[in-house]
């Protein structure tokens, strides 16, 4: 069996003297090729601490004093030793921080680094690397307790359990960091080092306070058991990726240019398993539904002010082109309304999963000129009044931008059953504005998402349904659209 070894690891000696070791050294020390190592997930924060650089590379190979590291790293080293480990991978000490070339190489290997580690130590409660992995706590705060209830016809005792999974996984500072999404998904085992630690593997999630309760039962979509099942196919795969995008897009990144890079580990692992093409965060197998994302305007009642990035991150048709949380399309498509003619992404460093410098999507379909779009994102009531009696919902990708300066077009992409009580048929699509003109075709930029509901009745319908239903669309109305 072939084992994979990272380019570098931190070796831990019994005296707690550390040193940087390379793959060549590890291969010599472990002839069978198997190296059991731990990994660390942490928040960098704003403080200054020791990192690997070109200048100190040789020095760190000679030795690293444990006291020179931030407390989080010191605790991770000691915990690794207590768990019988000899090696640990820490990003700031195993990637040359002042070498763009090394960063590109190593960031493209994250799917191997974390998936081949024996266990991940997650500094869940820390907002920087200065505090330690461990924290003071009152154990009674997380312990179950019993409430005696007396009713008119009977008496019963109810045991109340703290929802530790939600407290740790949904609210801890670490899980608001974008890079951690793939670190947690790829690791075969994780110890969430919070006030009330959790143990997670690809089959179960247990807490220290309630070791018999499996949180996978309640939080299946957020656990590895269901969300990272490489045996999943079809709808399961699409649902997993949608959950991942929704979770990841709500997280923060220190560098905006990492938007696709920080997720490429999961993408590469899935690509190796399923053999699918990947385009700027969207899979070829569900390309059509992947184009129907929409911005998530509010999160926990907070206006997210979703905007497009000032510098190029991804083509406008990709969810990765906007800064803020997005909703992936989750309905079942019953009939496509466009032909995907060509899709292409241009990698910045030769890796199609990483940073991009361009991308185009060419489709064939029927476009409709939209009524004047003089609203800001989210002003759906105003738009519905202007659009007569068609039932519309739309979201503009950049909530701070006025779009009335250019003509806007609606490109229906698919038919989908309306799952709301009103029933009928949903016709989702994307809003486009012209970007540039060429001699062969017009090029467009996506500016938003829209969906119209049709209940089957033409009488009383608005401009779109009347045009779309009554007009016999033929080849003469078919056009080729390229979206950048």
UniProtKB/TrEMBL annotation:
Domain Heterokaryon incompatibility span(s) in chain numbering: 37-183
Xref: InterPro entries: HET
Matches recorded under PANTHER family: DOMAIN PROTEIN, PUTATIVE-RELATED (PTHR33112), TOL (PTHR33112:SF10)
Annotated protein name in UniProt: Heterokaryon incompatibility
Organism the protein comes from: Fusarium albosuccineum
